Amino acid sequence: MYQWRKFEFFEEKYGGKCVIPEEVSGRIECCSSGRGKVVIGCDDGTVSLLDRGLKFNFGFQAHSSSVLFLQQLKQRNFIVTVGEDEQITPQQSALCLKVFDLDKMQPEGSSNTSPDCIGILRIFTNQFAEAKITSFLVLEEAPPILLIAIGLDSGCIYCIKGDIARERINRFKLQVDVENSSDKSQSSITGLGFKVDGGALQLFAVTPHSVTLFSLQFQPPQKQTLDHFGCDFNGVTMSDRLELIIGRHEAVYFYEVDGRGPCWAFEGEKKLIGWFRGYLLCIIADQRNGKYTFNIYDLKNRLIAHSLVVKEVSHMLCEWGNIILVMADKSALCIGEKDMESKLDMLFKKNLYTVAINLVQSQQADAAATAEVLRKYGDHLYSKQDYDEAMAQYINTIGHLEPSYVIQKFLDAQRINNLTNYLEKLHEKGLASKDHTTLLLNCYTKLKDVKKLNMFIKSEDAVGEHKFDVETAIRVCRAANYHEHAMYVAKKAGRHEWYLKILLEDLGSYEEALQYISSLEPSQARVTVKEYGKILIEHKPSETIEILIRLCTEDGKLVRRGTSNGTYLSMLPSPVDFLSIFIHHPQYLMDFLEKYTDKVTDSPSQVEIHNTLLELYLSNDLNFASISQANNGVDLSLRTISGAAAMFRVDSNGKSIATHNDSYKEKGPLERQEKGLRLLKSAWPSDLEHPLYDVGLAIFLCEINSFKQGLLFLYEKMKLYKEVIACYMQAHDHEGLIACCKRLGDSGKGGDPSLWADLLKYFGELGEDCSKEVKEVLTYIERDDILPPIIVLQSLSKNPNLTLSVIKDYIARKLERESKLIDEDRLAIEKYQEDTLAMRKEIQDLRMNARIFQLSKCTACTFTLDLPAVHFMCMHSFHQRCLGDNEKECPECAPEYRAVLETKRGLEQNSKDQDRFFQQVKSSRDGFSVIAEYFGKGLISKTTTNGSTATGAV
Predict the structure, then answer these.
(1) What is the DSSP letter of 647?
(2) CA distance 209 to 762
(3) Helices (H), strands (E): how many in the chain?
(4) Distance of alpha carbon 40 from alpha carbon 49, whole angstroms
(5) Among residues 687, 688, 753, which one has the least CA distance to residue 721?
(6) Is the pLDDT of residue 771 over 90?
(7) Spatial separation of the C-alpha atoms in residues 495 and 492, rounded to whole Å
(8) How far apart are CA 261 and CA 689, in angstroms?
């Protein structure tokens, strides 16, 4: 294989100075390695164990004669040996098998120790004829079970399976068929190899003329001949994938369980064959000069990783990560693999980047290391201006190499095609950022490659798999005037706001935008209308309002089934949610809200809607300029304005205001005020205590817009009668003022009579001639006896324009009436005095004189009065039997007497109710008469309790 490249990927360890220690005195017959040790068996029967660096650890006498074969086990610290011991009888063979446990050391004298021999087994018995052992192999099954295969020169394989320490074993024999069984040199077992694949246990057996496979999982074992030529001794090994490898003069062959696999034509006699970490190890003898060459082959990459001329090698081992060659003269050579960085540096210096890439990939290096090699190869190609190949390497680094490293190189080189290719791969692997998407789309648009742009944008998995950032793609396509592509991405990704932004802002397709909104789900349509409603109202007001009405009233039909009307309405969007889109178009807002209220009469947002409508109706010019005036002097705390309505107080641009005002001059403020008054009345029916709008806001709007009718209605509904007459007073509407007092001052109809007093006071302070009005007012004051004459005189005396003739008739009538009352009171007093004197005289008579009872009949039964009889001081007489048990009071006078007592008791209780007393004083026309009545009934008097004087409760 002279055409294979040679490299020095291995190096000699320990300075190339390694020898077998002097303690190993015999000739080396066999070697094994494992568990950090090298085990050597010699012809003097000793076994020696060497540590790292081939330093002698200890040795022991395993057999009395020669150690022919041995193997260090991997799972347990055991050594299995085959050697010659003393022959006990001529019939028994001297060969025996021993198992040593290195973890159990027994003292042997003062200085030497040896491991415990846990099992000794004679190999040949009467059933198994003695022959020369040519090969030996141990397989560790589930501990403590061992499977030992012993190849013989007779073409037989003796197998021993079981626990040798407990002598629980099973022996069986396998026979390899050979064409010339009489020639032992052609039938000898030159190599063995176990292959364990799941539950299948198979054994390779090699002779100079055959390769045979035994399947040991079957009983009896099944045999299969894989090939009809084999190899000599030391030419058999197993790969790490459990392939059988045999070395012949012309080539090296690999075998699987189904037959021969690949072969590699390496010329020369193969003295030794080995396997190390994926490398094939060969000691090749050169017949021309008698030299030996040690080659390490990297079969995957087809290169020779190391080549070295050596002396005659007797044994080859692998331990401590090194290859150990034991020479025939007891010298040794340790060869170790260089680290990956060193190997790559070696290849980079020779610009062998393809070899470096194959090397890191074959040795399963991590992805970052592979990417670094690819990057250096790409840099090398880039420096040679081979941009296409360089980009091919950079593409393989995606996911590990920072994309900006590659992008910067090709931006500088102005290789837009290569850059486009890289960015496409970056998006395919889902590793592109927003900036990468922007750059790729800019590349497409710069190249005007509409076909690729379509493939990138409109591929089936582009948006669904998030192949690129949607918002970035839309933005770039818009900037490059690829509106169709931008709209496609927006629609497929469900980014309705972007789709509408393009339609409205870039294309001005208002009709199409409205159709698109109508096709959306209600929830999505709400969001889009909120965002772009201003533009739509500007250009398509009626269509936009129609969509809004449908959204607020109809998109819940399916949900409405089985739900109450209130629940249904609460699931729909409120018109208040869309007020912001009418910020420059209040007239369209009024139209929208009117249409909504015509359809929906019990909306949850009724109060907010009415508030907004009132603000629109009562505004003089629909620009809400009056609100700015309110900030200069009006107390804004008098009302609560919804944020939605307050939004319209900001100034719009002059053009819009002029257009809207002109369009509504036909209706005028008077018509809107009529609508406002109707709304004030209809939204506050008589059966509701509170209206369906904010009263404070309504009063404020009426006030700042000088809407007198609305103010009068609101004050009257709120029973603020004094504020009602204050409005008339402010307007100097005397006729309306008197009419209002007639309507609101009638106490019989629940009015407030004190309004007449306020009205009289107003005329008294007016400062002008109002004789006619005063006379009319005095008529009602006199009729209801609202004010005493002295208060009337004091109130009217402040107006210098009023003469005494205005009140002359009123005073005369009052004086005449007072005189009549005085006379009536004087007669009543005289009568009460006479009655009082008569009562006192009667009481005195009862105290001092006897009474003569002359009644002859019973008052109760009208029969003749007989004894026993009862006579009362009230001059009533009764039979005792007619009175029954009630002999202490007269049945005739008792009811009247009880009524008087109950009245007195009630008055006494009322005298303790202070709130009632003061309420009567306050509500009475003449508070003094109430107090006099309490005094007259004896409810306010001085009483003596426990010797102290106290005033009765009032």
Answers:
(1) G
(2) 142
(3) 35, 34
(4) 7
(5) 753
(6) no
(7) 8
(8) 101
The span from the CA of 371 to the CA of 398, in Å, is 8
Which tokens go with 509?
Answer: 């397709």
Q: Which residue has the higher pLDDT, 526 or 506?
A: 526
Q: Are 203 and 212 in contact (CB under 8 A)?
A: no
Question: Which SS3 state, helix, strand or coil, does residue 800 take?
Answer: coil
Q: How far apart are CA 322 and CA 36, in angstroms?
A: 11
Give the span between the Cα atoms of 620 and 606, in whole angstroms.
23
Range of lowest pLDDT (33-42, 787-796, 883-892, 926-935): 926-935
Amino acid letter, residue 731: A
Distance CA 81, CA 97 (A): 6
CB 387 within 8 A of CB 413: yes
* 690 close to 717: Cβ distance less than 8 angstroms: no
Whether the full predicted model's pTM is greater than 0.70, yes or no, is no
- 884: buried, middle or exposed (CB in 10 Å: 19+, 13-18, 0-12)? exposed
Sheet (strand 168-175) strand order: 133-140, 146-152, 156-163, 168-175
Instruction: Return all residues near 101 (Cβ < 8 A) that are at least 6 apart.
Output: 76, 77, 78, 115, 116, 117, 118
CA angle 345, 348, 353 (to 5 degrees): 130
DSSP for 77-91, please give it.
SEEEEEEE---SSTT
Distances (CA, A) of 121 to 45, 94, 170: 16, 11, 12
Least confident of 491-495, 791-795, 847-851, 933-937: 933-937
CA-wise closest residue to 71 among 154, 24, 143, 135: 135
528 close to 496: Cβ distance less than 8 angstroms: yes
Provide the CA 19 distance to its chain's centre, in angstroms. 69
How far is the CA of 530 from the CAs of 525, 536, 582, in angstroms? 9, 10, 10
Paired with 19 in beta bridges are: 331
For tokens 């100079």, name the residue.
Answer: 208
Q: Nearest 5°: phi and psi at 311?
A: -80, -175
Sequence length of the chain is 954
| Positive or negative torsion for Cα 427, 433, 439, 444 | positive
Place of tokens 């610290």: 77
**How far from each other are the two terminal CA atoms of the chain, in whole angstroms?**
134
Helix/strand/coil (H, E, C) string of 491-525?
HHCCCHHHHHHHHHHHHCCHHHHHHHHHHCCHHHH
Furthest C-alpha separation in the chain: 186
d(CA 189, CA 233): 8
Residue 403 one-letter amino acid: P
Rounded to whole angstroms, the Cα distance separating 729 from 712 reads 12
